Amino acid sequence: MALAIATNNAALNAAASASSVNKDMETSMARLSSGKRINSASDDAAGVAISSRLSAEIRGTDQAIRNSLDGQALIDTAEGAHKEIENILQRM
User: Fold this and answer.
1) Residues contacting 39, CB < 8 A, separation 6+
2) 24 in any annotated domain
3) Is residue 47 in a domain?
4) What b-and-e string marks burial along 30-39, b requiring 16 or more CB atoms within 10 Å of the CB?
5) How many domains does the chain have?
6) Cβ atoms of 6 and 15 closer than 8 Å
7) pLDDT at residue number 88
8) What is the pLDDT of residues 17-64, one digit of tens each?
């Protein structure tokens, strides 16, 4: 008994096309749902590098602001202590 295998090329091509379209749709949905222009380095490698550098600068600037606010709080505390010492000396 001979065994014959039939191949449906049209069905295989349709399945491959459906798989490709599904992958493209997943990529598009990921881009739309994130709301970002760049989701991965493959989208825009130079843009990722620029974004990383700017993010680092922003973090550095935020830390500098926190440091200056801490310094201002320290100065305010020292000023309060100075005024208290001045009040004590005036009462003497």
Assistant:
1) 30, 31
2) yes
3) no
4) eeeeeeeebe
5) 1
6) no
7) 93
8) 999 999 999 988 988 888 888 888 888 899 999 999 999 999 999 999
